Structures are given as C-alpha cells and as structure tokens.
Structure prediction request, 395 residues.
Amino acid sequence: MKIKDLSTLEYITPGTGACAGCPSTIGLRIIGKALGENAIGFLTPSCAVASMGLTPQTCYTFPALNICFASAGASAGGAAMALDALYRKGKLQGEKPVVFNWVGDGGTYDIGFQGLSGSAERNDDYIHFCYNNEAYSNTGNQRSGATPQFALTTTSPTGKEIGQKNMPLLMLEHRPPYVATASLAYPMDLYRKVEKAKNITGFRYIEIHMPCCTSWRFPAADTIKMSKLAVRTGAWLLWEGEYGKLTLNGVTASLAEGRRKPAPLENYLKPQGRFSTMFKSPDKDKHLAFIEYNIHRELEFMAGRAKLLK
Amino acid sequence: MDKKIVQPISRPVQGACGVTGTWRSQRPILDTSLCNGCLICWLYCPEAAISREDRDIDFTYCKGCGICAVECGKKAIRMVKEEIK
Prediction:
C-alpha cells in the first residue's frame, strides 16, 4: 500500500477551527481513508469538538455525535448494540456501519476510563481511537494521566511529579480482539492498523500519539518531526496486540532488539517549551538520566511482555 | 400550525469556522519543477487544503502551519512571509 493508492475520501472539509498544525485533523483524515463512508463517529468534549464549527455548520463529513465526557465507552457500545437490534429486526439492510470513538487522552486515561474499561470487558463492537496529546489542551493545557514527568502544565507549574500510565497496555490486559498504538510519523502503519481493526468484530482500541504544538510549545511546522522523534527516542512505542498477545512494530521492534540505536533524547525534549524549567534547573542532567532510564525500562518491559505469549 | 420539528443537526460545509486563510503569517510556495508527486504534503495537510491532482494550495483556507515545507523530501515547498498587498 502506497500513499498514491489511498482513497480520496476526506473526513474534514477545509476551514476547520483547529490550530495551525493540528495533529487531530491529520489523524482524522488518515483514519477516514481507512474506515470509509460507512462509519459513525462519537466525540467527547475535546479539541475535535471545539474545532468543528457552530450549528448548523460543521467541518466533519462523517456522521458525528457529540456526547458527554465520561460516556465514550457506554455511548459507542450502546449505538453498536442498537444497530445490531435494528439489523436483527430487519429495519436496516446492508453492511453494518463501523462505530468509532474519537476521544482525547482526558476522555480515555482519566474521565472516560471506567466506562471504557467496562465496555472492553463486555466486548462491545466498536473502535476506540484515543488521540493522545498528553494534556487537556482544549481547556488551556491542564495535566492529565498521559502527561510525562517534568512537563509543565497550568496545573503542574513546576513540572509534573510523576510519569504517565501505560494505558494501551491496561487495555490489552482486558484481552479485547485488537489493541494497537500508532504514530502520525508512520501514516501507512496507522492506516494498516485501522484497516485491520475495521475487519475485526468486538472491542478495538487504537491509540495515536499526537504532538500538540500549542500545549507542548514548539513551532507548528514541527508536528510530524516531533512524532518521528518520539518514536525514534523510544518515548512512544509502536505495537499491536490481539487477545493479550503483543507484537512490537517497526522502529520500536528494532530498538528493542538493539538493531537500532535510540535517537538522542535531548533532540526530542529540548524544542518543547513544556520542558524549559527542567532544562534550566541545576538538576537537569539527573532529570534527563531519569527520563532516559524510564524510557529504557518501559521498552525492556514491553519487549519482555511480547515474549511472554507467543 | 407548523408542525415541523427543528433538530440541531449540522451539515458539512467548507469554511465552517470562517475563512481560515486569514490566520496565515507564512505562505507556502510550491516549486513544481522539484516536486516528484509523492503526495506526502497532501497526506499531512491538517486543513486538506492541498489538492491531490496538482498539489495546488487553497489559500482561502491554508493556515500556513508549514508542515508541508518541513516534511517535503524534495524541498519543493518553501515558506515566505505573508505581506499585505
């Protein structure tokens, strides 16, 4: 599959309210090409909702329903069940539409977690996309469960004290049919994972890493460059898993096997304004070494987890 | 009496949040002689403002983020300062 073979279908029309260089609209465009026209989207409060325009106008071309923050799992699961009932009664014919969530890290890691966990356990039939920009960017950059250690946000003004949780692994341990992580820097890998998930029935979870130029404070032009650096330094891991079985993908697999040396961590963290206090502090080297140790630990842990079940 | 039910349904239109081209401070310029048509700029445009056929940029909606210029492998797109005519 090459970029030239991608569908011309667009999930957004030009003139969105998103910031210049917004990764969320890029992600929506790529997943739209994989999901196709027959899809229903659910959006919890996030930038994706704030940037869609005011009624009666919208910039999204897919059927989108705005729901409340904590209900991503329940709403999409309910919609999938309602569709099943309508097909069973013969009120709907043809192919069943793909139900998907387009939810930020707040609606997945923190506020939406219990609904999502329950839904994964019930194995409801939909795809949950988490676009992870590592903060509550829409409301002015507050810390979330996905914010990395030492990052500045308005609610962690001296840098966050603890690291982020490994949400994709938590979802994998629910043993749903499909869990994957993806990055915008590898669009064809993301496309392949969405297309694979589309053809599976049951609960599917795909988390996409989205460097947000506004809250991370780097130039808008470097959005994709930051995605690439996150994967190459090992700060973001690419993997996929089915029923609890885990496989590392692409760059992450070669990092874990030692076939590739990780990119210098400073190249990734230095351009981000949210780490400016860390770089100015006298403990800079200690903090950097600690982040590097944690990245290495996480990589080793996931590689070990991949070896557990074959 | 008019019994028509009014529902808060939005329809997709171009420019739902206004003419976003006015946000631009830098303008991407494409050098067609260097372009090899790899379509990476088209795929990465957050605004879907680059045409797939001839990489023509829609300046009504382009916000000038510069992702296309950074990601272009052939350096066929450069950013110039936007000036008021």
